[in-house]
Specification:
single chain, 4 helices, 5 strands
Length: about 130
């Protein structure tokens, strides 16, 4: 059996583990087809992006374990994880993937709530009288 490569991707609170192996383009997220799991076309495109970038959408099978966060966070964490796994397979993909911007981990996360405020920056409604 072909040795599979694995990688981890994170975004916001979402964490995904990706297992990449030679195959025919089957992408499975939490034992469901990715088009069934990520119903929005935009999120499906995010998952496919690293594979489309190196023009090998039908050369690898991808098994994904996604946990935490929401749909968008999981999709973008998956994008990063697939790109990292592709680098393990062939380091020559690096310039192409880097140019497409799929190797960068998005550092943005929710700002913490501050004391005396309703949310991180939102104050309670001010009443003059």
């Amino acid at each position: 059996m072909e040795k599979q490569k694995n990688a981890t991707g994170r975004r916001k609170e979402a964490v995904t583990r990706v297992f990449l192996s030679k195959g025919n383009g089957k992408i499975v997220v939490n034992d469901k087809d990715y088009k069934e799991y990520f119903t929005l076309t935009y999120l499906q495109n995010q998952v496919e992006l690293p594979l489309k970038t190196i023009e090998s959408l039908d050369k690898f099978d991808v098994k994904i374990n996604a946990a935490g966060g929401g749909m968008k966070g999981q999709a973008e964490a998956t994008k990063l994880a697939i790109a990292r796994a592709l680098l393990e397979i062939n380091p020559e993909f690096r310039p192409v993937l880097k140019a497409a911007g799929v190797l960068r981990r998005d550092p943005r996360a929710v700002e913490r709530k501050k004391p005396g405020k309703k949310k991180a920056r939102r104050s309670f409604q001010f009443s003059k009288r």
